[in-house]
């Protein structure tokens, strides 16, 4: 049993000694001291179903035995040298990761966080094209480092310092709240026209990059209409830009139908960034690009002390093996479909539900006070979220308006877990 400091003591220590900017999710914060598969345990041993996977990070399940064993073995053998010496893990993992990519996306760079990956992708695009301007999307989240913060488009995450120089944000392709809805077969093309407009009105006509999450995560699981990325990529490429897909949340089989989120839109990017689920919880992130683009970064030294360390590489390799061996992409499809059908049933019963959206196990339920006006039900969302915790389910919430329940569990969840989740959310919706 747990015999460390109490949650109150930990909270006190955090208040005194840890960044005051970090937030805890619940009115009365919970402390998690153990995890196993899709379950989390607090200091009293109470079990919760994890519907959020440490913000979409725990892809194959908490403390997966094969992943833990791979990391432990590597830690005991040699944990760190940097890439100044050869080590097989980085070479083998790069080959295995590249094998998962379509087209000519075959060269891997390893870093330690999603922000770093996006920083590097932007550097690459700017160095390769010789252009500076970039286009990102409104409602995007790409990280908190200075150049990633520039790409991020949520006032909540942007500090009042000059950060967005050279970045413009295109209209968010949101068929629920935007001008072109699900009844418009050309919605994707129409939203993408804003990328062309930004190129024409806001840049020299030449850009370095267009970057988009394949499904907006922090922004509340916004799935783009069909054809959006295809048209946006065409506009970006016509202006000399590279297309960057941020797969930090949508990648690694989570969408169910495809291994990568961008594949659901039928495009092939020039650069792909990934983090979170890639390592099932270790600080591992990557940028994958083509040999041609990669050459540009060889004109100077690009070095990263921890990037590609043998332990993260061992863990990344194990994650890929487990996704394959346990059929987790197929499971995402199956359980995702069960949850989606369940949420649609709940929507018939609870008028609070404005829209159910998402692919596979990357789902969002947007809550509104009124289906006509779509007035965001922010307080109700917070109340549902709290009630779920009391009933033993941890989920996420997000969206610019703070009214979207985000469901992104470890990909190993079962049908029984999904049914429990639906029951809990049903009861929580009824209680507000
Ligand atoms: N891109 C996306 C889509 C993300 O969701 C996040 C993190 N929420 C990041 C980038 C940044 O990742 P990190 O926090 O590891 O820097």
UniProtKB/TrEMBL annotation:
Enzyme class, spelled out: transferase
Keyword Cell inner membrane set for record: no
EC number: 2.6.1.44
Keyword line: Aminotransferase, Pyridoxal phosphate, Transferase, Transit peptide
Listed cofactors: pyridoxal 5'-phosphate
A single GO molecular function term of this UniProt record: transaminase activity
Pfam families assigned to the protein according to its UniProt record, in alphabetical order: Aminotran_3
Subunit structure: Homotetramer.
Protein family: Belongs to the class-III pyridoxal-phosphate-dependent aminotransferase family.
Protein name (Swiss-Prot/TrEMBL): alanine--glyoxylate transaminase
Species name: Luteolibacter arcticus
């Amino acid at each position: 049993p747990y015999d460390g400091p109490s949650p109150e003591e930990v909270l006190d220590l955090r208040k005194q000694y840890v960044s005051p900017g970090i937030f805890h999710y619940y009115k009365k914060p919970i402390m998690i001291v153990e995890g196993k598969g899709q379950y989390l345990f607090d200091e009293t041993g109470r079990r919760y179903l994890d519907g959020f996977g440490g913000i979409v990070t725990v892809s194959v399940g908490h403390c997966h035995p094969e992943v833990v064993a791979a990391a432990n073995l590597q830690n005991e053998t040699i944990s760190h040298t940097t890439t100044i010496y050869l080590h097989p893990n980085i070479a083998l993992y790069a080959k295995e990761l590249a094998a998962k990519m379509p087209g000519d996306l075959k060269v891997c760079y390893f870093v330690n966080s999603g922000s770093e990956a996006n920083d590097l992708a932007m550097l690459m695009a700017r160095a390769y094209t010789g252009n500076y301007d970039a286009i990102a999307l409104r409602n995007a989240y790409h990280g908190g480092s200075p150049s990633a913060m520039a790409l991020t488009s949520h006032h909540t995450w942007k500090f009042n310092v000059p950060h967005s120089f050279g970045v413009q944000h295109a209209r968010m392709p949101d068929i629920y709240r935007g001008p072109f809805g699900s009844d418009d077969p050309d919605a994707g093309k129409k939203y993408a026209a804003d990328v062309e407009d930004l190129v024409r009105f806001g840049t020299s006509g030449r850009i370095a990059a267009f970057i988009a999450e394949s499904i907006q995560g922090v922004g509340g699981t916004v799935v783009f209409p069909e054809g959006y990325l295809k048209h946006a990529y065409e506009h970006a490429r016509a202006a000399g830009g590279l297309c960057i897909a941020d797969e930090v949340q949508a990648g690694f089989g989570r969408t169910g139908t495809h291994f990568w989120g961008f594949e659901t839109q039928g495009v092939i990017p020039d650069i792909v960034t990934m983090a979170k689920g890639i390592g099932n919880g270790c600080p591992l992130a990557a940028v994958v690009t083509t040999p041609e683009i990669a050459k540009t970064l060889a004109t100077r030294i690009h070095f990263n002390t921890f990037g590609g360390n043998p332990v993260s590489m061992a863990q990344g390799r194990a994650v890929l093996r487990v996704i394959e061996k346990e059929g987790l992409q197929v499971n995402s499809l199956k359980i995702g479909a069960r949850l989606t059908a369940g949420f649609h049933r709940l929507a018939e019963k609870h008028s609070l539900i404005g829209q159910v959206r998402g692919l596979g196990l990357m789902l969002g339920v947007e809550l509104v006070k009124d289906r006509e006006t779509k007035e965001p039900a922010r307080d109700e969302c917070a109340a549902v979220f709290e009630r779920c915790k009391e009933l033993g389910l941890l989920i996420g919430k997000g969206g610019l308006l703070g009214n979207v329940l985000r469901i992104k569990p470890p990909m190993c969840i079962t049908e029984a877990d999904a049914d429990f989740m639906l029951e809990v959310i049903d009861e929580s919706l009824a209680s507000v």
